[in-house]
Amino acid sequence: MRGTSIVVAFGLGCSAPAKPDVATPPPPATAQKTGPKSWFAPKEVTSIAQLIPFQRWPGVPARAIGIVFVTGRQPWGGSIDHLRNVIDRSSYPQTYAFSAGRSSPHSVMWEATSGGALFMKDYSVCKPSGGELRLDATAYSEKSRNAYGLSRRAHIVELEVNHGQGGCGGTFVATASKILDGTPDIPMDPEAVILELRKRFDNVVATYSDKLVVDTSGDTNLKNVKRTQTVGILPTWIATTRQLEVLFVYRDLAEGDTQASRGRVDPFLLARPAPPQTRQVGHGVAMAARYTTDRTGRFLSEQIYLPSAFTEHDHGPRDWFNYANETP
């Protein structure tokens, strides 16, 4: 099954229709926004996985503007990590990550002398100019006492990165921070905005509930089936347009055990065949939506990616959205 995306964009102050008309979308074309309530051309996606950046970490500038958000299980859903896993466990460390420009989430450490959730001395980070920088740093959540003004699950921030040397890879140390949300320039409350967008996404999922059906009928050997429904979230800040963009992914997975065939007997070695091996197989369906708001938190657009079926196996990393493990 191929997933299709339909975008409806609205100008500020325009009301959104209850449901995008996906029955008769316009023909595929290179389309540009022409005004309020205009259609974009639908995009074909072979997998919901294509929407999620995989270890995409462009270099981080000396001063970076983006969103920090608390990972793990939160009221808006589970955070999506750099491997496309949805982290929907309360036991997962709930500390701030950073994203800007549709990057994968960066793990953020904060320069400190003690405290926080994960204090480390001489924490090593790479420098774009080469070599490494070692700093005493810790990780924070919104509940941690800190000197950076972090008090909510999400903030729009301007960070000094690695003492102004910039960063590379999936982690860096914030050595100074300025909270930008709640100011005249960016008056939004990103935590409240994301929670409201989650409500909107729940309504979208409910609208397509008849298409979000997991089919395991073709796998008669599947045993011990466990059914899970999860919602993953990856917010990012687009600095060029000063817009908040939030990707939600809904996933319904029926996962169970199946028995692989026995190994063959080698007549020369007189070896016994290998015993049957149990492997995990999952059949599921996923859909997604991407939302954009302006710097005030006002809703701008909604892009819906229609339900897409997938099958995943237990070979390789248990990576929910890895291309190798997902068959469209």
Q: Which features does this protein show?
A:
disordered C terminus, 9-stranded mixed β-sheet, 328 residues, 5-stranded mixed barrel, mainly beta
Structure description:
- This protein is mostly beta strands.
- It has one domain.
- About 5% of the residues lie in helices and about 40% in strands.
- It contains one helix and 16 strands.
- The chain has one helix at about 190-205, and strands at about 5-10, 45, 65-70, 75, 75-80, 85, 95-100, 105-110, 120-125, 130-140, 155-160, 170-180, 225-240, 245-260, 280-295, 300-315.
- The strands form two sheets. Strands 1, 2, 4, 5, 6, 13, 14, 15 and 16 form a nine-stranded mixed sheet that branches. A five-stranded mixed β-barrel has the order 3-7-8-12-11.
- The longest helix has 18 residues, at about 190-205.
- The chain starts with a strand and ends in a 15-residue tail after the last strand.
Oligomer state equals: single chain
Major β-sheet profile: 9 strands, mixed
Low-confidence regions: 7-44, 315-328
| Number of separate helices | 1
Radius of gyration: 22 Å
The average pLDDT score comes to 80
Number of separate strands: 16
- What portion of residues belong to β-strands? 35-45%
Q: Which structural category fits the helices and strands?
A: mainly beta
Count of individual domains? 1
Shape label: globular
What separation lies between the terminal Cα atoms? Answer: 6 Å
The helix-strand sequence is EEEEEEEEEEEEHEEEE
DSSP helix fraction: under 10%
Draw up the topology in text.
Layout (H helix, E strand, L loop, with lengths): L2 E7 L33 E3 L17 E8 L2 E2 L2 E4 L5 E2 L8 E4 L6 E6 L8 E7 L5 E7 L15 E8 L9 E9 L10 H18 L15 E16 L4 E17 L18 E16 L5 E15 L15
Parallel strand pairs: 5-13, 8-12
Antiparallel strand pairs: 1-2, 1-16, 3-7, 3-11, 4-5, 5-6, 7-8, 8-10, 9-10, 11-12, 13-14, 14-15, 15-16
